[in-house]
Design a protein that fits this description.
- By secondary structure, the chain is of the alpha+beta class.
- It has one domain: q2cbj1_9rhob like domain (Jelly Rolls, Sandwich), CATH 2.60.120.
- The protein has 8 helices and 12 strands.
- Strands 1, 2, 3, 4, 6, 9, 11 and 12 form an 8-stranded antiparallel β-sheet that branches. A 4-stranded antiparallel β-sheet has the order 5-10-7-8, covered by helices on one side.
- The longest helix has 19 residues.
- The protein is globular and about 50 Å long.
- The structure holds 2-oxoglutaric acid.
- 2-oxoglutaric acid binds next to strand 4, strand 6, strand 10 and strand 11.
- The site of 2-oxoglutaric acid (AKG) has 10 residues, from strand 4, strand 6, strand 10 and strand 11.
Length: about 325
């Protein structure tokens, strides 16, 4: 097995990022980042949700929620309603670095958002996307429905309660794993966000049920698993990092929680949560809105890296070391008494 091929071995890594260390700006756009990033995931025949050749045929997906879509008023009202978070759910998030919450989004809201997202993704990427990972970010700036969810108190206040601080939005994201697309590599978001805080959390909001063959988010359970991965180096061209994480976790008996999502379930994972995602072995795109929030007052780290992707678009004008607060980062969630 070749562990460290030459940088040019990955054609999707922009040429400008092939030399030097990781401390440099990503030279492409957000979609190019995702196209490259999923090439860093191993997709072996032994993986449950692999994506190479000779695989079993794709199975039918679950479809969209079988309800009428919410109208604007009902959607806004549902997203303004506080979610009753139990103390043990907050404790589970802090101990395990993630929590999956049932019933955060009513099925009619999911249906409406899913239909809107379909329009937005097709407008951006067209219809010829089989096998790809297509993304769209900062939708909230232009689309009222996407704004209603990304800036909602319901989601924002959950994020606040989990991290224990008022939170600002970093960015929203539509993540569409098209039929046949392979795995998302193991990672934790602290290595991606250029934020000098661990009080950051991503709400992963699937736009349908996500059964196992479709690729639900899988979480390694543990508050801080970095010591288990001590000495591993990020591999910008191949799958060695992803493979090594799998091996280290198995050797250390780290539990990986890999369960299906029901309609309306939303998971929240913290900056130190190691996670991966299986391939999509269904005929339906696996779509989720993934919106990240971080503690008000946080600064940008002194040395962002190319893994931070197009972070300057999410924090326009903010330089390394400065406070991460622009008009694109309103406070969305507040700590409640
Ligand atoms: O949806 C995916 O496949 C990846 C999502 C992810 O890694 C994240 O939201 O942090």
């Amino acid at each position: 097995m070749v562990l460290n091929p030459a940088p040019e071995a990955n054609a999707l890594l922009p040429e400008q990022n092939r030399e030097g260390g990781l401390t440099q700006d990503w030279a492409g756009n957000d979609q190019q980042w995702w196209d490259w990033y999923v090439t860093l995931a191993a997709n072996d025949a032994s993986d449950a949700n692999d994506a190479g050749a000779d695989r079993a045929p794709l199975v039918e997906g679950p479809g969209l929620p079988d309800v009428a879509p919410a109208d604007d008023e009902a959607l806004v009202a549902a997203l303004a309603e506080p979610y009753v978070l139990r103390d043990e759910q907050v404790a589970a998030f802090r101990a395990e670095s993630f929590v999956k919450l049932p019933g955060v989004l009513p099925p009619a809201v999911v249906r409406r958002l899913a239909e809107r997202l379909d329009v937005l993704l097709r407008a951006e990427h067209g219809n010829d996307t089989a096998g790809r990972f297509t993304a769209l970010e900062q939708m909230w700036r232009a689309d009222p429905l996407m704004r209603a969810v990304a800036l909602s108190r319901r989601i924002g206040d959950i994020a606040s309660a989990l991290v224990g601080a008022d939170v600002r939005i970093y960015h929203d994201n539509a993540l569409s794993k098209e039929p046949g697309c392979g795995r998302t590599p193991w990672h934790h978001d602290a290595e991606h966000f250029p934020l000098a805080t661990l009080k950051a959390v991503t709400a992963w909001m699937p736009m349908s049920a996500v059964p196992t063959p479709m690729g639900p988010l899988s979480f390694a359970q543990g508050e801080d698993l970095r010591p288990v991965l001590d000495g591993l180096h990020f591999d910008r061209v191949g799958t060695s990092y992803d493979r090594a994480v799998t091996e280290r976790f198995a050797a250390a008996h780290v539990r990986v929680v890999d369960s299906a999502y029901g309609v309306g379930d939303v998971s929240f994972h913290g900056a130190l949560c190691f996670h991966t995602v299986g391939g999509n072995r269904t005929t339906q795109p696996r779509r989720a809105l993934a919106t990240t929030y971080y503690a008000d007052g946080a600064r940008v780290v002194d040395s962002p890296t190319l893994i931070s992707g197009t972070w300057r678009e999410f924090l326009p004008g903010v330089q390394p070391g400065e406070v991460a607060a622009t008009e694109l980062n309103p406070v969305v969630g507040r700590l409640l008494d």
